């Protein structure tokens, strides 16, 4: 994977992290939506790790 793609994945991961924190702080937070965001974040993290390990 290219360096640019890795940066895009990292940025998306950071954006999701911010969304998760915002949603968790909200008094009317939706547990299902929060769980879905966390799942997306984990998948992005896995892609980032794979991209970093690729030659």
Write up this protein.
With 55 residues, this protein is mainly α. It is built from two helices and no strands. Helix 1 (3-25) packs antiparallel against helix 2. The longest helix is centred in the N-terminal third of the chain and has 23 residues, at 3-25. The N and C termini lie close together (9 Å).
In short:
With 55 residues, this protein is mostly helical.
Specify the biggest β-sheet: none
Question: End-to-end span in angstroms?
Answer: 9 Å
- Oligomerization category of the chains in this entry: single chain
Q: Helix share of residues?
A: over 70%
Number of DSSP-assigned strands: 0
Average pLDDT confidence is: 93
Order of helices and strands: HH
**Which geometry do the CA atoms define?**
elongated
Measured on Cα atoms, how large is the radius of gyration? 13 Å
Please state roughly what percent of the residues sit in beta strands, choosing from under 5%, 5-15%, 15-25%, 25-35%, 35-45% or over 45%. Answer: under 5%
Query: What's the helix count?
Result: 2
Poorly predicted ranges (pLDDT <50, ≥5 residues)? none
Q: Report the structural category.
A: mainly alpha
């Amino acid at each position: 994977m290219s360096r640019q793609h890795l940066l895009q994945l990292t940025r998306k991961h950071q954006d999701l992290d911010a969304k998760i924190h915002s949603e968790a702080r909200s008094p009317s937070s939706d547990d299902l939506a929060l769980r879905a965001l966390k799942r997306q974040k984990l998948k992005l993290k896995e892609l980032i790790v794979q991209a970093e390990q690729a030659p």
